[in-house]
## 1
Amino acid sequence: MHSLYDVPAPAKLNLFLHITGRRPDGYHLLESVFMLIDWHDVLHFERSPSSQISREDLNGVALPPDDLITRAARALQQATGCTQGVHIGIQKNLPAQAGMGGGSSDAASTLLALNRLWNLKLSRQELQKIGLTLGADVPFFLCGHSAWVSGIGEIIEPLHGKNALPEQQFIVIKPEQGLETGQIFTSDLLKRDSKPAIVADFAAEHYGFGRNDLQPVAEGLQPEVMKVRNWLESFKLHARMTGSGSAVFAPMTQTIDLNSAPNTWKIKICKNLESHPLLSWVSG
């Protein structure tokens, strides 16, 4: 195998996000459901005769030289002693600073693709260990399903079979402005004492359960987040921010007039995925 084209890296939405405490080392303890959706970046991989890792931005979106895609490829080389290289093309469709995990998903799809392209035969758990060194969300995108996530993001319980999420369409809106995660988590206004929940609590309500504890701080830092939420709620949709923002989403329980939205907002109608598109690419 010399190449892999049109490799998807799907986004996630946080159906809720509760901060239940803070560890002595400063890391926040959370509970959330991460849901995979059918909005994704697209990556292309061509095996190189040398061990060099190179990357090309296919739609003109500037990425830093040492972005998560490149770091993921290098981490896989280092973990396995692999001497093969790769040229990676990235078509960046997911917005940055949106709380949708685009960079982490790109890294996870890179690990899955190169494990296949380089014939490394690592298990899902082995890839997740490498992924955790790249970022807390990367192991989730390797697990293959939407999931209940807790701890500092390292405890992942896939939701499938009888616990699978009901099929639903969502509207996702990313305002022009983004948000820096660090600004939210260091705020003195952040609520850090939400009562722990269990999967059964969430299953009783699904898309109406809980809240995003980061949202009040985010709306104070970036008023556009509140503007998007108010616009969605004017149609009687149940809207909330995903992750650390600034994207806001709502289940599409009725048709709405998208023409009344500001043209600076990036709007996408999505649906949740039953499983990750690359689920079968790795065992374990």
## 2
Amino acid sequence: MPHAVAVALLPPAIHHIAAAHGIRVLSIKGAVLSQQGLRSRRRPSDVDVLVDPARFEDLVLLLRSMGWRDRDGKVLVPLPRDGTVLAPHARTLEHPRWPCQLDLHRYYPGFLRPAQDVFDRLWAHRHTAQLAHADCDVPSPTDHWLLAALHVLRSGDGPQLQELETAAAEVLRGREQDLLTRAEELGAVGPLREPLTRLLGASPVVPESDVDLLVEWTRRIHDPGNLPDAFLEQFREAGGATRIRLAFRQAWPTPRSARAFHDVGDGPLGLFRFYLARLALAPAKMSAYVRLHRRARTKEER
């Protein structure tokens, strides 16, 4: 199957599978943004779907039964009841017969409200878009602009942010108050304060309840490669067996993660040298994680 055909057909296929099992999903980014006039047309490299957090693992298990496999082997724990911008937010799945990747998102970083609350609000305002001649649920243009702006801020892509702001000035003209209201309801005012100020002509007020998470968000986008807090949040929320898996994966990352997030040399030799060095580091790391585990258990027992 050609890559472009796979990217076009996969969203309605996922919607059909999810709907058959009562799982709510929203297609995000990609062709939907272009259809809504929020960015220029381009060829998407993968498919992104936002999943009802309450049914996220159900959909993952369902797709695994159909031959999809986790690309990175991430260890995900239940999301905190309060909002979060640190916990890993997606699984990237691959299938031998589909030449494109599928990113399943269980929440979207930058929306500071609790994940379930954010999804329910997005769902309540959803629109439909024609993807491969099938009606698929998608965020409203206003909500989708907020999501896309958070994405480009996290990736540090200034030109894309400028493109989004230019599009919003046209597509969302006359709906500026709705844009601000939705940003407030979804907890995006703080992270998007500067773009919103440029669009609205006035600086929106950041709710006091968002300040702590906003600090974490700011630290994340300015230093995305060094996030011990993300691991500590997961470790704190995990159960005993999952904590062991998290610690092992942190000390001994997969080859793909090693190349993506660590200074690994080219070729098999570079990977061999990386893991050889980890043999010296792993005992100290595991010891630190065991101490964290004991400390967490002590707090739970109090």
## 3
Amino acid sequence: MQHAVGAPLPPPQGPGNGPAGWTHQAQHPGHPGPPGPPPAPQGQGWTGPAPYHAPAPVSRETTGHVQLPPGGPVPLPAPPAEPGTGTATLAVLLIGPAGAGKTTVAKLWASRRRVPTAHVSLDDVREWVCSGFADPQAGWNDHSEAQYRLARRTCGFAARNFLANGISCILDDAVFPDRPVVGLGGWKRHVGPGLLPVVLLPGLEIVLERNAARSGNRRLSDEEVARIHGRMAGWYGSGLPIIDNSTYDVETTARVLDDILARSIASPPAW
């Protein structure tokens, strides 16, 4: 049979082209086209494809087996049934001036726990910005404040994400008692009232000595260290637990931190 040039060809005939009345449509490359007829039920001697089963709907609360953080804030943890923080899943904020040893103590405390515990340093998160990093040491302005707020919100989401999956989290930041922008209010907003703050505040001479051992943009001038340390003294009388680790090594400080956190769980500080 002859067909005019450009005229559509009739659908091919033969076995496998569908039942009577079913019309085959050409498909564009990469386009799945309309679905074909459903396969017949399987039975004795059936050799065709298996029936298609639609996948179960995925909950919006999960990505694979990872639970997304709930919309609500982190609540207070239940008191542990053993000495120290035991197996409690908790969020901790370790506060202190530059050179107090926050990051070192937080890492050791997290690594010595018997349950999964993560450590997130706000300074590390701020420095994720490579091009265009607004270093607060070059001056506190709208740009550096915006990046600080962004880093704090990112840390808060990370903490809630870890806790939603049964992993404790300890954060560290130089939070000032007399400066709302760099204060506790933002941390409570992004993590929740279950966040347990502890202040690490050794003597000025210890902070100056530790700061001198730093390098890069983490090292501050002695004048700046003294100014920050003086403002941190405002935490005395705030009701927050304070650790003077001037004479403690890192391991002792981490042990004292765990004891204080256990008491904070049983009797949370007002903040």
## 4
Amino acid sequence: MIDNSAPADPHLTDAAAIACVRAYALLATAQTDGQAVRTGSTTRIVTGVPMALLNGVFHTDVPADPQAVAAQIRSESFGDLPWSIQVRGRDTDPLLEKEAGAHGLGQRHDITFMTRDLSDADAAFRPDDGVVVRPLTGTESAMFLRLVAAGFEAPQEIFARFATPAVLDHPAMHAYVTEVDGIPVASSFGVHLDGLVGVFNIAVPPEHRRRGYARTATAAVLRAARIDGARAAYLHPTPAGLPVYLGMGFRTAEHWTAFSR
């Protein structure tokens, strides 16, 4: 039985949080109109993805420095895109909350951040018989986009920037499809940076759920990253995915706070 009770390694948590923001910045700069501007521990990111949590000002110091965050906010940089302020931890400075409110970011969100050691990932979680997991390139971007959108039950436009050939062929970004009898049943996506891998876009269409494919898709990212030398993984789980990740040995490292409209 997997023990998730031990506290997460604070050094790993710090490194993973920084790598996560760098992964968002990498997605942004892979876009022709994206932007990532870093000053110290604060990064202003414009991915162009129509999600507030993927555009905005990200700060990785704990506790957060409200003045550093304020200095990076340039609301005109986000145009009509939804955006957010994201900081680590649940306890936030009233000055930060005031800054968020001044920009109309009145909604507060708690975001779980999880990590997992990868010392056993190359041997663990082998696919079941009949299940194939393979990497994708930009030539299959349309299929990957359809699969991710179906898995999240959302319009394809929301995920289009995750599936461009420039993203799928980027040396630090790796997309995978899980197939059964040649039929795509799950997607997964990993970003390899700083000896860590971020796990994203684990998506299973409704008709293929409850068969372990999310676990298989996640494991593919972990195994490949371990082979490439990654020592640990991190992710932000959805509520539906949380039991899967807990069962795979991920543990909650900390919580982030996001302010959005």
